[in-house]
Amino acid sequence: MFRFSRRAAAAVSIVAISAAAAGGVGAATRSSDEAALAPARQPADRAIEKRVNKLLKKMTLEEKLNQLTLLSDGQMKENPAEARKPVGAVFSEVDPAKIRAYQQDAVENSRLGIPILFAYDTIHGFRTIFPIPLGAASSFDPAVATDDHFFGARESAAVGLKQIYSPMVDVSHEPRWGRISEAGGEDPYLNSVFAAARVKAAQGGDYSARDKVVTSVKHYAAYGQPEGGRDYGTTDMSEQRLRNLYLPPFKAAIDAGSDTVMCSFNAINGVPGCAHRRLETDVLKREWGFDGFVESDYTAVAELRSCPPRIPDEGSCGHGVAGDGPEAAARALRAGTDSEMVSTFFRDYGEELVAEGRVSMRRIDDAVRRILRVKFRAGLFENPYSQFTPEQAKAEMLKPDAVAAARKAAGRSMVLLKNDGAPATLPLDPGKKTAVIGPLGNSERDMVGPWWGRGDDNSPADIVTPFEGIAAQSAGATFTEGCKVSRTEPPHDDAEGCGAEANFADAVAAAEAADQVVLALGESREMSGEAAVRSVLDLPGRQEELIAAIKATGKPFVVVLFNGRPLALENIVDTAPAILEAWFPGVQAGNAVADVVFGQVNPGGKLPASFPRRVGQVPIYYNHEPTGRPCDVNSKYNSRYRDLPYCGPLYEFGFGLSYTTFEVTNLALSSQSVARSGRVTASVDVANTGSRAGDEVVQLYINDPVAKISQPVRRLRGFQRVTLAPGEKRTLTFTLDRSDWGFYDNKGRFVVEPGRIDVYAGNSSRASLRQSFRVRR
Ligand code: BGC
C-alpha cells in the first residue's frame, strides 16, 4: 500500500516502504539524512482565496491574459518590456541578476505589481547534478529522490526561481524513446513513490519557504508511450491501461502537494494532452481536486493546429484539432490548460474569444485565479526576490552537503549486471595498476546526462570524470580514449561514433601495460533525452569491437556503462566478465564509479526497466498482461519471435547483483482470507549469506489471476532496500490493501473483486516465493 493523504496536515504513510526509505521522503528544511516526514499539500487557505479574489477584481482582461502567458528566457531577452506587463511566468532564465531585474520591473513598474513566477527544469539537480532520474530510480531508495530535489530546490531558489518543471513521472515501456532517461522507468508504483518523495522534498510543507519551490509534475499524460517510441508521437490506449499504468504517479504527485502540472505534447486517443478536457478538467481538477494550475508544454497550444497553419507566420502546428490560432487557444482553455508556454495564443486571441463567447470570462478568471493562488502560496507577494544577492547565490551552488549527497546517490543508483570469475572480477584492487579505457572514460559533459541543468556551467571544474575518480583511488591509473562516441545533431549515424577514427592499438597497449581495465562505454549524452530516439539499442559505434580487443589481452576488465536508456547487451554479455550499469551519474560520477569498482560501496541498485536482448523485442516489460499462448521456444503457435531462441528480456525489471549474496525466504501472510476493505500483512526474511556488508532490495509483487479484465502477470506493490552485515538476517513486513489488489476498469472505475490474489516476494520481478489469500465477497 502506498498512500500520501491529500491535505492531511501532518504525517503521510508509506506503509510498504522501509523506515529508512520512508524517512527519505523529505521535510520542509531537511534532506534525507535528517529523516522526517513533511505535511502533504497546503490546505486551501481562506486568507489566500480572499487575496486572490480581491486582486482578480482589479484586473483588466489584458492583465489577466498576460498572467496566462509563460515566456522563455529568449523571448524575454528579445522583449524585456514583457516584465512590466507583467507576464505570468518566465522559464529558463537562470541568471540571478536578470531574474531580479525582471522581477523588479514586474513588482515596481506594473500597475498591480504582480510578481512573475520564474521556472526551470531542475529535474535531477540545478548545479549539483545528481544521477538521471532513471538512474535514481535504480536505487529503489526514495531518499535519493528526496536529496536530488531537496538540493535542486535549494540551488534553484537561491538564484530566484520559484517553480521547477519536475518531477517527470512518465512511466515508459519504450527504451527507444530518449526521454525514458528523465523518469523512473516501467513501473507505476516505483514512479509514484519517487514522484511523491520529489514533490515533498522540493516543496517542503510550505513552498513559500525561501529554499523551496513549487513543483510541476509532467507530462500529463501518457507521454512515455508514444507509438514506436518516437518522441511527440501519438498514444493510443485503453482507459484501464491509462489509469492503471500511467496516471498513478501523477496522482501520487498531486496527493503529495504538487501545485502545478504540465500537459503533454502527445495526443492520447486522438486528443492532444493540452486540449484534453477529460484528463485536465474531469480527472485532474474535478476527480482529484487539484486547485493549482496547468501549463502547456513548449508551443503545445500552437501545435494543436493543422499544418500548414492558415496564418503561416504563426509558427508550430501539427495535431490538426484546431484550424487556427484562436481555435487552438479556445480548445486548450476550455480543456483546462491555464498557462501557455512560448506560443501566445491565449493572450493574442483571448479578448476576441471572450467577446465572441467562445471562451467564458468565468473560465479565464478560473485560470487566473489558479495562477495567482500558486503565487500567493509561494509567498511571492511578500518575497518576490531570492533571499540572496546574485553574488551570494553563487556561494549556494555545489555546497559540500549537496556534493556529498550527489556522490552517495550516484553510488546507490548503480546496478551490477554481471560479475563472473573466481574470484569475482569486481571489486578491483586499487593497489594494482588500472587502465581506464573508452570514449566515456574522461568525458565531463556526458556524465551529467541529456538534461544537465546548469551542471556544466563551469565545466570541467565541477564534474569528476571516471578517470579522475579512479585515479584518485588508484595511484598510477592511466586513461586512453580508444575512440570517440558520436554526438552530432541529426542527421547523423550513431555508427560514426567509435568508428573510423578508432584507435584500438593504443587501447590495447594501455591494457597490456596495466593489471586491470575499466572500460567506460555507452552513449553520448546527446543520444538520449528529448527528441533523441534510437532505432538500435546496442552499444553505438564499434564499442563492441573495443570490448573484444581488450578481452584478447587477457587482462581482467569491467565494462562500466553510461547511458540514458535500457540497452540491448546481447552481443557483449558473454564477452564482458563484469558489467556495471552506472547510467549518467551526475557531477560526482567518477568518485562514485571508483567507490563501486574498488568496493568502498557495494552496489545495490536494481533495474527500473527491463533490458531487452535486442531491439526487436521492444516493448518488453515485466508488468504485461498474460496471453492464452505464452512464449514457448519449443513450439510454434504461441507468443514468441520465430528468430529468437529465448523468451523474455536479458535482464528483468528489479534485477541487480551485489558483491555479497542474499537469500530471501519464508514469505508468510497474516491471513488467507480478507474482507474487500481489509488488510493483509506479508512478512519475508532476508539474509546476507556472503562475507561482505551489502544492500538488498526486497520486492513484493501481486497478481490477480482471475479478474474481469486480464491483469498484469506481476505488479510491484512494495519494496524495501536494506543494508545487512555478513550473516545478518532481518524480517521485513509489507501491508497490502484494496489500493493494491483493486484495479481500474475501462469505464475508469476502481474495482475491487472477490477472489484469489497471489503474492510474490524476492529480489527481482522473477521473484519465486509465492503465497495466496482470498478477497471475500
Ligand atoms: C519539454 C519540457 C520542458 C520544457 C521547458 C519542453 O520541450 O518537453 O519537459 O519542461 O521544454 O524547458
Could you characterize what this model shows?
It contains 21 helices and 26 strands. A hairpin with a 5-residue loop joins β23 and β24. It has an eight-stranded parallel β-sheet with strand order 9-6-5-4-3-2-1-10. Strands 11-16-15-14-12-13 form a six-stranded mixed β-sheet, sandwiched between helices. With 777 residues, the chain is an alpha/beta fold. The site of beta-D-glucopyranose has 8 residues, from loops.
What are the SSEs and their pairings?
Layout: H1 19-23, H2 46-58, H3 61-67, E1 69-72, H4 73-78, E2 89-91, H5 96-109, E3 117-120, H6 133-138, H7 142-158, E4 163-164, H8 188-203, E5 214-220, H9 239-246, H10 248-255, E6 260-263, E7 267-268, E8 271-272, H11 277-287, E9 293-295, H12 325-335, E10 340-341, H13 345-355, H14 361-377, H15 390-395, H16 400-413, E11 415-419, E12 434-437, H17 466-473, E13 478-480, H18 504-512, E14 516-522, H19 543-552, E15 557-562, E16 578-581, H20 589-597, E17 662-669, E18 673-674, E19 680-688, E20 694-703, E21 715-724, E22 729-736, H21 738-741, E23 743-744, E24 750-751, E25 755-762, E26 769-775
Parallel strand pairs: 1-2, 1-10, 2-3, 3-4, 4-5, 5-6, 6-9, 12-13, 12-14, 14-15, 15-16, 18-26
Antiparallel strand pairs: 7-8, 11-16, 17-19, 19-22, 20-21, 20-25, 23-24, 25-26
Helix pairs in contact: 2-14, 3-13, 7-8, 7-16, 8-10, 12-13, 16-20, 17-20
